[in-house]
Amino acid sequence: MLKSLLRWHSSRHLAGSRSIFLAAQIYRDGYVSANNYESASDGEYALIRRLSNEKVTTIFDVGANDGSYSKMISKILGEAKIFAFELSPITFSRLQDNVRHDTKIILVDAGLSNTEAEVAFHHVDENPSLSGLGSRPYSVESRVLKSRVIRGDVYAKHAGIESIDFVKIDVEGFEIEVIEGLSGILDSVQIVQFEYNEMSWMRGNFLDKFREVLPGFQIGRLTQGGVIWDLSLLSNAHLCAGNMIALNSRYGVLKALLSRF
Asked: From the record, what ranges are coiled-coil (predicted)?
């Protein structure tokens, strides 16, 4: 209702109408998407649909969980090959069951990081999406399992992957390590989507740190209406939880495409 009214106001060419409309749209989209990680309403589905007419052939789904996101991508981007990485042995079994009939999804029973090692993984039975490396700050019980992490650039080299069109990262606060482990192939990555919230902040990883490990990328905030590239329009952007989009400047032609869904 508010958006429709403001669009009418703008169409009447009233004084300041365009600025008012844009400000209201940014507020609305930011409000709806803040702390929202439901793919249908936080912009994730809309983003992938927006890319459906582009040549997207290789995707890394890091923190694939039960495979819902990989299946969504596979359905919308029919020609894309999706590499789904999952650290939790328990969740990986569910992932296998859920995507077993989709030959375009390649499963990897490991997490991505900036090293290759065996690690202790904290699995939350009550809500597996809260599982991850490091102790859980939530008031939930977790159990420690053994798993392994590998570097994304090393995996890509061994798999014969020369470029990655899209990387989605949801690893409960360890996004920086994943990006560092892609450094050897990062120049050929077009888009990185990463979750940004208190899990990152508790480890001292704010937007400045992400800019440091993503040189040559512009970072914007994903909303259901598009990507907000000018983060100065958001109050306290460094503490604005949600999904962020990092676009490689070499593929700047995509910036306008992703600005409005």
From this structure: none
Q: In whole angstroms, what is the distance from residue 245 CA to residue 221 CA?
A: 6
Domain ranges for the chain: 2-8+16-259
Q: Where are the beta strands (DSSP E) in 4-65?
A: 58-62
What is the rounded CA–CA span in Å between residue 117 and residue 196? 25
Give the model confidence (pLDDT) of 31-56 as tens digits: 445 555 556 668 999 999 999 999 99
Write out pLDDT tens, residues 209-219: 999 999 999 99
**Cα distance between residue 237 and residue 220, in whole Å:** 10
Domain 2-8+16-259 falls under CATH 3.40.50.10490: no
* Residue 84 dihedral angles phi and psi, to the nearest 5°: -105, 115
Report which DSSP code applies to 250. G
How far is it, in rounded angstroms, from Cα 62 to Cα 170? 6
SS3 75: helix
Taking the model in full, what pTM does it have?
A: 0.83
Collect all residues with Cβ–Cβ distance below 8 Å to 200 and sequence separation of at least 6. 173, 175, 176, 206
> Is the Cβ–Cβ distance between 142 and 211 less than 8 Å?
no
